[in-house]
Automatic annotation (TrEMBL):
Domain HTH araC/xylS-type: 159-259
Record-given protein name: Helix-turn-helix domain-containing protein
Ranges annotated as spanning the membrane: none
CDD domains for the chain: cupin_NimR-like_N (cd06124)
SUPFAM superfamilies: Homeodomain-like (SSF46689), RmlC-like cupins (SSF51182)
Any Pfam family hit: HTH_18
Domain of life: Bacteria
Keywords: Activator, DNA-binding, Transcription, Transcription regulation
SMART domains in UniProt: HTH_ARAC
Amino acid sequence: MPDASRSTDHRDYQRVPRVVTALARDTEHGVTAPAHSHERAQLLYATQGLMRVQTDGGVWILPPRRALWIPSGVTHHWTSVSKVTMHTIYVEPGAARQFGDSCRVIEVSPLLRELILALLDEPIEYPIPGRGEHLAMLILSELKAAETVPIAIPWPRDRRLVAVCSAIMADPGSSRNIEQWADEVGASARTLIRLFPKETGLHYRQWVQQVHLAEAFNRLAQGQSVGEIAATLGYASPSAFSAMFRRILGKTPQHYLTEWRQPLTQHPA
């Protein structure tokens, strides 16, 4: 049985004398965690539901079976886009260095998921040596082998670009072009074209495509068809949308739709 004394406060997991600790909590739709950071690195992961996470440098949409690696000390805040079942882990800084110093989305393999759930069945300060220690080491091994998903929405600082990016995020299917956005924020199209790679590292169309991919992941996880998503995002046809999706991710949207329509095996309480 899970440890009934487990805290749902992330602060209680930062200084436990264990390399890896695991937290579980349920969150209702629309809940926002204010900006904060952790002493430990974090794998932010929801086994059910959708989350939106933002740092000073980017935005990520996390459906089930994808998680965000957040290095220690990175300030972030998140919002539950639906009801969320969160099973997240914290890794002490020394062990976390091998996973890099930037945020990235990773694929959560079935084995990694089960290892996280199994660690949640152990006390927070699990015995050493023992089962919890073995699970922690296996989690680190799976993290090292985890595939990175190239979806990230770099976030600008220039106020004009922030206004444009915020509007696109709010309406990913908008048909406005960069000239129309420029008129909206009182800048020239040439200025915006120059600012996008300077501020985000991506050209305008590349940035919009990242927004489309994130929104597509969101909608695929909700069971929407490829045709519905393509139409919502303003693509001429499902095949045009699928071609963009596959070019960037190496897999078709149908691949993910099939995956998310398969129910996850329930973990016994």
